[in-house]
Amino acid sequence: EVQLLESGGGLVQPGGSLRLSCAASRFTFSDYTMRWVRQAPGKGLEWVSSISGGGGSTYYADSVKGRFTISRDNSKNTLFLQMNSLRAEDTAVYYCTKALNSYFEYWGQGTLVTVSS
Amino acid sequence: QSALTQPASVSGSPGQSITISCTGTSSDFGTGNFVSWYQQHPGKAPKFMIYEVSRRPSGVSNRFSGSKSGNTASLTISGLQAEDEADYYCCSYTGSNTHVFGTGTKVTVV
Fold first, then answer.
1. Residue of chain B whose Cα is closest to the Cα of A94
2. Would B93 disulfide with which of A101, B27, B34, B51, CB 3.0-4.6 Å?
3. Residue B31: CB partners within 8 Å, gap ≥ 6?
4. Which residues of A fall within a CB distance of 8 Å from B36?
5. CA dihedral B2, A48, A82, B41 (to 10 degrees)
6. Amino acid B29: pLDDT
7. B66 CB within 8 Å of a chain A CB
8. In this predicted model, what pLDDT tens digit does every residue of A47-97 receive, in sequence order?
9. What's the pLDDT at B1?
C-alpha cells in the first residue's frame, strides 16, 4: 500500500521558517500530483498547495501564497513544503497527500507545526 | 475562499441512516461533479471515502453513498455502526487547481 511519511514539523517563532518533507513509497511518485493539506488544532481541513508530477506546475491557497513554496525531488520520491514568514495562524498538522485526479486519495500521518514565541 | 457549510454534528442510533449535507455556491462546485468526502477518526489522518459525488474507492463499505443536487452535496451512511463515529469532511474542486473543504461534521452513534 502507498506510504507517505511527513517530517520536519516543530516549534518555530513567528516570522521564522520551516521545511517539511514527505517521503513517498510504493507507487510511481513522478506520475502523480501531490498536495499539502493542513488542519489547525480542533479545526477543519484546509488545502494548502499542489504540485504536478513533473514539478512544473504549482498552486497555492491565498492564505499561503507568497510565503510557502512546494517542490519535489522525483529522484528521491520526496515532496517538500518550504514555509517562510510563519504566523500563529499557520499552526496546524500538515498532511502530505497523493492525488487521484481532483481528489486526495492517500494521506500521511501528518506533522505538527507550532508557530509561537 | 470560504469553507463549504456542513452541520456541526449529526447523530443516529445503530442501524439507522443519517445524511450529512454540504452546501456551497455555484463557484465552489465548479462545472463538474468533483465532490469528495473524507472520514477522520480522532487523532488519525483523513480517509478517502467518496469521489465524483457518489463513487466509492475500493474497500469502502457500500453503506456510504453520496449525492448532489444543485449547490448541496450529501453523504448518507446507512446501517449506522459504532465504527462510523468520526468527523466527516466534504471537499470540492473549484477549478483553477484550487480546492475547498467543508467545515466538518461530527457523527455520533448514540
1. B45
2. B34
3. B95
4. 102-104
5. 120
6. 83
7. no
8. 999 999 999 999 999 999 999 999 999 999 999 999 999 999 999 999 999
9. 74
Task: Please tell me the distance in Å from A57's CA to the nearest CA on chain B.
Answer: 10
Contact (CB<8Å) B48/A105: yes
- Of the candidates A92, A76, A4, the one whose C-alpha atom is nearest the C-alpha of residue A40 is A92
Contacts 24+ apart (CB under 8 A), B42-45: B42/B86, B42/B87, B45/A95, B45/A107, B45/A108, B45/A109, B45/A110
* Interchain proximity B89–A45, CB inside 8 Å: yes
B9 and chain A in contact, CB less than 8 A: no
Cell numbers found for residue B110: 448514540
Residue type, B40: Q
Task: Give the pLDDT confidence score for residue B6 in this predicted structure.
Answer: 98
